[in-house]
Write a structure and sequence with these properties.
With 278 residues, the chain is of the alpha/beta class. The chain has one domain: TIM Barrel (Alpha-Beta Barrel). Helices cover 36% and strands 18% of the residues. An eight-stranded parallel beta barrel has the order 1-2-5-6-9-10-11-12, surrounded by eight helices. The protein has a two-stranded antiparallel sheet with strand order 3-4. It is globular.
């Protein structure tokens, strides 16, 4: 039997708005409802951003706390992963929610170009975020936008700045960063396995590349990410009606490749996370 595939749903992100797709959940209540639907459809990780009252991205720990409380109540067992991304705050503000001890948090270990800006992750900030994740027992998901990020994450695991085994997500299709190219993905997987043989990996595609990268990741034995943060459409002409619809599409790809979809219990076991207490 093939190994279970963990499906992560990135529910809202920092950029999509209701003008892009009315289904994008902005308020905490909307995010909880949308995540519950995605959880019931097969997602076992919720990748979480929060917005302020104006709908703009924020790192406000109080809003993250409200979201986590709702997800713990309505999506029992689901893995809660907070974003420490750079669009929501500056400097150490980006890690202000880590004392809440979510199951996981994203961690970018290097800088790269985005479409209109530099996504800056200075070494001293990366080390601080990594140290806070260790202190608060938060498992990092390494967001790799470049090959150097894969190598740096492995180096940080070797010198104990990160706890092994690593969980690395290859983010493909961001303009000016890693392209959505299957041979590139194969090389990234090979490189990760060479430097960190016990690592688990995931892949995410942006925009129209989402479904393509989902299929590559599932077929190659990895895990994958979907959701309205990365892509607001089912196809060129049809908006996705919900996060759950994108999860359902990913579940169908798993079935095509005879990959069982990981339950939240299996996902926690694969990632070495504690099971919730009754």
């Amino acid at each position: 039997m093939k190994s279970p595939c963990i499906i992560c749903v990135a529910i809202t992100g920092s950029l999509p708005t209701k003008a892009n797709n009315p289904a994008v959940p902005i308020s905490i209540a909307e995010q909880i409802e949308s995540t519950q639907q995605a959880f019931e459809a097969g997602a076992s990780i919720a990748h979480c951003h929060v917005r302020d009252d104006a709908g703009q991205p924020t790192s406000d720990p109080e809003r993250f706390a409200q979201l986590m409380e709702g997800l713990r109540t309505h999506c029992r067992g689901m893995i809660v992963q907070f974003s420490t991304g750079g669009r929501s705050g500056a400097g150490r503000e980006r890690g202000g929610m880590l004392p809440l001890s979510p199951d996981m948090a994203s961690l970018s270990v290097g800088s790269n170009n985005f479409p209109t800006r530099v996504y800056e992750n200075a070494p001293h900030l990366v080390d601080w975020l990594a140290s806070q994740m260790k202190i608060h027992r938060v498992k990092p998901e390494i967001e790799a936008f470049d090959l150097s990020h894969v190598v740096q994450a492995c180096k940080m695991a070797d010198d104990k700045r990160l706890r092994a085994p690593l969980y690395v997500q290859f983010v493909m299709g961001v303009q000016n960063a890693m392209p959505a190219d299957e041979r590139v993905l194969d090389f990234y997987i090979e490189t990760l396995k060479r430097f960190a043989p016990d690592a688990q990996w995931c892949a995410a595609g942006i925009g129209k590349e989402q479904i393509v990268v989902n299929e590559w990741a599932i077929a190659k034995g990895g895990h994958t990410r979907t959701g309205l943060e990365d892509n607001v459409r089912l196809n060129r002409d049809v908006l996705a009606p919900s996060n759950a619809a994108l999860v359902e599409r990913t579940v169908a790809i798993c079935a095509e490749h005879d990959r069982p979809v990981a339950t939240w219990q299996q996902a926690r076991a694969i990632l070495g996370l504690e099971q919730p207490q009754n």
